[in-house]
Amino acid sequence: LSDNDVAGSVCVINKVNGLFSEDDVRLITLLTSRVTEVLHRLALDQQLRQKVQDLSTLQEIASQLPSPPGLVDTVTTIARITRQALPGMEICLFFLHDSASEALIMVGGDWVPRMSFDSRALSVGISEKVPLADSFRDNETMYFQPGTKGMWISDSLVRSLNMSELAYIPLTVEKGTIGVLAIGSSVSGSMTSETRRLAGLVAKQIAIFIERSRLYERLRSANDKLEQINHLKNEFISMVSHELRTPLTTIKGFVSIVLNEETGPLNDQQRRFLETSDRAIDRLTLLVSDLLDISRIEAGQIKMQLRPMSVYEVIQRVGTSFAPQMKSPVVVLILKVPDHLPPVLADPDRISQVLDNLLTNALKFTAKGQITLSAFDKGDFVMISVKDTGAGIPKVEQDRIFDKFYQIKIGNAWPAKGTGLGLAIVRSIVESHRGKVWVESEPGQGADFRFLLPRARSDTPGMSAMGTLQ
Q1: What is the residue-wise DSSP string for 75-138?
Q2: By CB count within 10 A, which of 74, 342, 378, 404 is most buried?
């Protein structure tokens, strides 16, 4: 007995002394229990060895998968290891479902060197009445052995490779069956029950690897197309921006000449119309410049001139140049930069552009209060902050404000000025410096735009000449 189940029987025959005594029965019962324990331990040992072997095979497959996980390389690696793990098997082929042609197409495999065949001739439509298609449609393992007839007579592998034993095992993932694994041998008796069991186990596990590789191929293809589209977009924007600059400069020049009354005196209505046109030209010029900047940065046409840079000096310079732009006497600009702030590895001109965009954005949303430009030493990075006391930004919009052309409302109205590209340019420049930019804000409590720049290391060229920066 094993767990109250009958596992077998022991038969003892006494031809000499007649009936067994009670001691004989007790001894035989004791012996039987010991045999049962030994058999149970042997079974557990066999199961353990089997599981170790299974895990070893799966681990070997996983450890040797290529990176990146290209489909053909992944299938080839899996097929080679699988065939080696299945004694006597001469072929290990993978047929995957192609949704465009509604066919099972052989994408790769492993086989003994003496075999030669055209993989294109082995592909079949999933609606055909053949074992390979049936295994895929019914999600059922199918076996061919000596004496098997019926539709197997016309099977392409049996016929073209002269298989004596063959198995089709469906490859299944959560979304359904993605293909079929075919294993076989030309020698009868090669496909044991252990071979079938291990092949079924491997098929369940490797289907995930194959589906991952197919997803990678689709994502790579989609990414290549998106990169091509993005490249064309950047080229188009760059070309249009260049073409617009020349006529805008010409229009701006003639409007300025007329406004300066070089062509004759203007009445009030003419001056008002021309001033409106002049402001519109300035906005259009800003839009063209922003479009050109962001397209060049994203296309990698603008190379950041990285060098050790004094954050203190850049902030002071930007603060001085920005002071005249304060249109309201009730808005105050405050600079807070500590002494001995470490230098950062950055392009001073581009960081000045970032600060200018952030300060312009802060002034736009701050009718009254203060704008604080500060910097902090964060170890491997220096954090720069532009904080205002304006309207603030709702949580739902904080993830979108760095998108191109996205603008938030001031109350129920859109801002009077802006292209929606300033913050997108800020993000592009900061990320080009291997930094990070984000905003912290609550509606009605202002906004704090922060970005990190990597600290210049001591071995950075130019550091020895800078000395200690204050």
Answers
A1: HHHHHHHHHHHSTT--EEEEEEEETTTTEEEEEEEEE-TT----GGGG-EETTSSSHHHHHHHH
A2: 74
